[in-house]
């Protein structure tokens, strides 16, 4: 009996020693884990670049000194190597480092409302987005329409292969609006004849994404009337999306305009506003909802000139403060020249046949954005050839052989990237298509 009790006592003692040892081990491991994570904070989802970043006082996490447009486009391509029609939103300061926020037109962004008081940096933000899109897409993939009429900001864009139409004086505005409606109808006919329900499914290769920038909505009202403008916005914004047309509509505040078309807006970019009453019309959220998202609402942002280029970006219920890269006249001129040179437009300004603008050539030779590293850059022609071959071949290797006459290196990466994006040939040997 005593021997049995002794045995159980010994066993309990052993169990106690083992549990103390285990607890100490767990504690040490947890401390090590904590120390490691204190030394190396997790990178933010949006990626980072220069160290020792500082936010603008009173502007949430908006970065005080954002990198230039070159670095911005470089970071954009690193963050989202394969996303099409991506563009930068602006820079923030996350855990002491600069972080770029970005979005993409095809996928989840429909139309954009861009607002801020005078000199808030609206044109500069839009120019950054349009130049980035142009650098990353050929004129066959992307066309731009600019309706300005308030200054000289877009004069240098004339003759650019990406420029579908520029309305830069008040008398050019109404015809440009009619041309956009006619283009929408033309696209409707093409898509309907091709038997597809939306632009994204069309494989004809002759309908580039058409992005229209309206630099001041009030000028469109002056060129037409409040009623006509409302009708035009309602139909163009509601229907344009399905036909590969996107709008960036800028104005000082949207509160002076009818509300229906605003339901088509999926991204709000709002800079300084003088009163809380302006927050909701320009962001779609109430002031306290923006604060709950840990962002500074437009009515609390610093006013220009200190606050120029600082915006509150709202998508759904998420809000973030950013500062856009400042693009001065010289830089803009260099970019436009680079885009012209890369597409051969400077040699043939009136050329009908527009050459594509592959990112590699713009990036490597002219704009100094490294093209190596990250995912391969696939031209629209290559993309279409890969998709077509994927309908015929049973495996990605065979697709690669058919399109590039090789099965390795960058060619293989391109095939992999396009197949992943399109959701085809996910299993070797059979054709799988995902919605
Ligand atoms: N990202 C930025 N960072 C710093 N300063 C900026 C930035 N963007 C613009 N600015 C400054 O603000 C000035 C006005 O910019 P911009 O013309 O883009 O504003 P806007 O909102 O379009 O003005 P307006 O409505 O009066 O035409 C620029 O000349 C520049 O000095």
UniProtKB/TrEMBL annotation:
Residues 101-280 form the FtsK domain. One of its GO terms (molecular function) is ATP binding. Gene3D superfamilies: P-loop containing nucleotide triphosphate hydrolases. The chain crosses the membrane at residues 6-24. It comes from Kouleothrix aurantiaca. Coiled coil: none annotated. Keywords: ATP-binding, Membrane, Nucleotide-binding, Transmembrane, Transmembrane helix. ATP binds at residues 116-123. This is FtsK domain-containing protein. The keyword Membrane applies. InterPro entries: FtsK_dom, P-loop_NTPase. Pfam families: FtsK_SpoIIIE (PF01580).
